[in-house]
Amino acid sequence: MIGLFDSGVGGLSVLRHIRxxxxxxxxxxxxxxxxVPYGRRAADEVRxxxxxxxxFLLALGAKLIVxxxxxxxxxALAHLRSVLPQVPFVGMEPAVKPAAAQTHxxxxxxxxxxxxxxxxxxxxxxxxxxxxxxxxxxxxxxxVELIEAGKTADVQTEQLLQTILYPMLADGVDTLxxxxxxxxFVRSLIEQVIASAPQxxxxxxxxIDPAPAVARQTRRVLEAHHLQTNDSAPGALRCFSTAQPDMxxxxxxxxxxxxxxxxxxxxxxxxxxxxxxxx
Length: 279
Ligand code: DGL
Description:
The structure is a single chain. By secondary structure, this protein is α/β, with parallel strands linked by helices. It folds into two domains: 2-92 and 211-278, Rossmann fold, CATH 3.40.50; 96-208, Rossmann fold. Helix content is 43%, strand content 17%. It has helices at residues 12-21, 43-59, 70-83, 96-102, 114-117, 120-129, 143-148, 155-170, 187-195, 211-224, 245-256, and strands at residues 2-6, 27-31, 64-67, 89-90, 107-111, 134-138, 175-178, 206-208, 237-241, 262-267, 275-277. A hairpin with a 7-residue loop joins β10 and β11 (275-277). It starts with a strand and ends with a strand. It binds D-glutamic acid (DGL). Residues 6-8, 10, 36-39, 69-71, 113, 116, 144, 180-182 line the site of D-glutamic acid.
């Protein structure tokens, strides 16, 4: 099984590409909705949560873990690899590299979370790939919460996106990086806001979602470790939420085009973080 996790529904935007890339692999997905949003939590807390979730997924049989969350990858990926060295992990980062390669105006917008922008991993990414381009960063306050509430086509969300995007577009941003796995769920609204912007660059604005590349990387890592399934039947999906199974079930059904049952995983009280299945 491939295990995936995110603070909430966002990782489903990665899961759908992994499903398409590896249709026979059984998948486990955990949304830590008891702690969403991760973007405003301390890196140390996100590290602890990520480790406990990874251990939970491993106990259920995960052979590889995809950290389907930019914020958790930024805070915890290095830590996870050091405390669980036997486990192959696939992480995420805002797609600054491809954006820098394809912008014509030399101006790139990055929509991510405060946690991602404040991380060393992001600073290193900028240092490596963003020399010579101008990067407009927006931590999109409130956007994750709106998406968690299912408001992916609401006026409120559209207005928030206008506040985020209009200034970038007026300045000539022609490439937009979705640096949080929640944001692909408002991609249509983003396209609408771009189309209605009073000022925008001459050329079309490209939107980059790294999820397809992450799915291809997952396949490569799986193959490199000889962990592919031999099954020819469609892979099963088991979903967990630490809080609100309903919204996750709804969105998972919408994204995957099939009914999805969501089980509850419960954070146990005490100093050290660990998760147990609700029976
Ligand atoms: N989906 C997450 C990400 O990719 C985090 C959203 C949040 O919980 O703040 O960054």
